[in-house]
Predict the structure.
Amino acid sequence: MSANQASFPVATMARVLGVSKAGFYAWLHRPASAYAVADAALLKRIRTVHASSRQTYGSPRVHAELRTRGEKHSRKRIARLMREAGLVGACHRHGGPTTTVRDKDARPAPDLVDRDFTASGPNQLWVADITYVPTTAGFLYLAVVLDAWSRKIVGWAMANHLRAELVLDAMETAVGQRRPKDVIHHSDQGSQGGFKLSSQHWVGGWCDGGSATFGSGAAG
C-alpha cells in the first residue's frame, strides 16, 4: 500500500485488501524492527561488495567475500536481500557457440604459470580468452588480453569469425600498447584455425628485441 499511495487512495486499497486504514497508518509510523535495521545495514555492505566486483558477483560470491571479512550470515539471507534490491551477478551463458576447440591429438603447450596468476609487476603475465556477444545480426567474437598484475585489458579485437587472426589482432594490439621486453602469454588449451597449438608461437613478429613465451592452461 505504501508503494502505491501516489496511484490509489489509501481507503480504496484498504477496502480491496481487507485491512483498516488505522492499521495501515499505525504500521507506517511504527519504528523499524531491529531485524529490519540489521537487514538495511547488511544490504549496504552487500552493495559495496557487489559494486567492487563490477557487478559480477552473485549471492554465493558475495556470501564468500563477507565471510572472509569475518561476517557470518546465511546465504539465503544474502540472496533474499540481493533479490529484493535487484542486485544480480554475471551469468554464464548457455547454448552459445564454442569459442575454443581443443585438439585431443595435439600436444598442448606447457602450463608455464602452474595455475598461479599472480604477478609482481606489469607486463610479466598476460592471460587471454575469447567470448561471444549476441547481436540481432548474429554473434560477434571478442578476444582480449589482460595484464594479470593490473587486471586491465591491454589488447582486444572483435570480429564476426573465430579464425586465428582474431587472436593475433588482440595480441598485436597489446604488444603495440605495452611493448613488453619479456612476457608470458597464457590461454586455454585450445586453438583457432592457423594458430599453432603445439608451441602457441606468435607468428606476427616482435618489437624492441623483446620476446613472449606462450603457454596454455586447462581447457575452458
In short: Residues 194-211, 215-220 have pLDDT under 50 and may be disordered. Residues 125-216 form a domain with the Nucleotidyltransferase; domain 5 fold (CATH 3.30.420.10). The beta strands are 125-135, 138-147, 152-159, 182-187, 211-216. The radius of gyration is 26 Å.
